[in-house]
Amino acid sequence: MDEKNNVHELKVLERDSRSNNLVPFRQEFRVHGFDIYYDDLDPNELTLMFVNHQRTGSGISIFTHRLGTTYIQHVDTVKSPLLPSPNDVVATSRRTFYATNDMRHASGVMRRIEILFGMPWGHIVYYGPGGVFSKARTGISYPNGIARSADGELIYAVASSEPSISAFKADEDGVLSLVSKKEFRGFVPDNVSVDDVSGSLLVAGFLNTFEMFRYNREVLRGTDARPAGSVRRLSLSSDGRTGFVEESVLSHDGTLLPSTTMAVIQRRNGIKRMLLGSVMADHIAICN
Ligand SMILES: *[C@@H]1O[C@H](CO)[C@@H](O)[C@H](O)[C@H]1NC(C)=O
């Protein structure tokens, strides 16, 4: 990517079928997890996939972006009954993806029961090349962040209520089978990112879940809750079979960035740093 040409804001556009002009995207755009994909065919054309919580039902909205332009262009928004409560998405090609569905119920009392009792009712859905949704993996307790290894061989998914992270391999139909799994103690993982250079994973999450629930409940009205967080680095042996090695990279009391849900490694001009983000915050934190 061109480092000099920093784009600060991207317009969200779609092609009007009648006039053939690019116009502002007319659908609702309420974003949750997203992913960016590119391949060797044309590395200057990025595909962006967003979990889009439209009030008429959640879907995955797919856009393209040409480097150097100032907009993303809508390609398709796909929905399915197999996508009841999408949380995060990972693209596996320009038109295929996996998405986590954290719960079976999108709202109401059953959703509260699912949260409270950590029911293993979440699943990972696959959207394949034929434009068809299928269940790739079921019986997961609150599947949350999802990511893909740099070589595309492994899919990593967090189960927040278990709490654990698993590495999966896909068969030709997109069905995921377990390769390796790491359970956490005293740590509720939220999101995962892959450091493409080292191959290791960064998992961000919480050390105190009750404080996290209180924060999420109260944050819009103002809260003194400060959910303590942690970032764990996991390294997987090359064949994945001997499991993950876990290290703690950072622990914080929540004042740095309340409700830190993600950590990613940024490498740029020889400088390596860690960026922390939160679904609830309007800023990020940078750690040298
Ligand atoms: C989770 O982290 C990935 C980076 O690996 C990011 O693309 C995605 O948007 C994040 N999801 C959420 C819900 O924050």
Overall description:
The protein has 2 domains: 1-183, Neuraminidase (6 Propeller), CATH 2.120.10.30; 186-288. 7% of the residues lie in helices and 49% in strands. It has 2 helices and 21 strands. The chain has helices at residues 109-117, 209-218, and strands spanning 11-15, 22-24, 31-37, 45-54, 57-66, 71-78, 86-91, 97-101, 122-127, 133-140, 143-148, 154-159, 164-170, 176-183, 188-194, 201-206, 229-236, 244-252, 262-268, 271-277, 285-287. The longest helix is centred in the last third of the chain and has 10 residues, at 209-218. The chain is globular. 2-acetamido-2-deoxy-beta-D-glucopyranose (NAG) is lined by residues 32-35, 88, 145, 147, 191, 193, 261-262, 264, 279.
Order of helices and strands: EEEEEEEEHEEEEEEEEHEEEEE
Uncertain stretches: none
CATH superfamily of the largest domain: TolB, C-terminal domain
Structural class: mainly beta
**Shape type:** globular
How many distinct beta strands?
A: 21
CATH architecture call of the largest domain? 6 Propeller
Number of helices: 2
Domain module count: 2
Strand content: over 45%
Cofactor: Ca(2+)
GO molecular function: arylesterase activity; metal ion binding
Glycosylation sites: 191
InterPro entries: 6-blade_b-propeller_TolB-like (IPR011042), Arylesterase (IPR002640), Serum_paraoxonase/arylesterase (IPR051288)
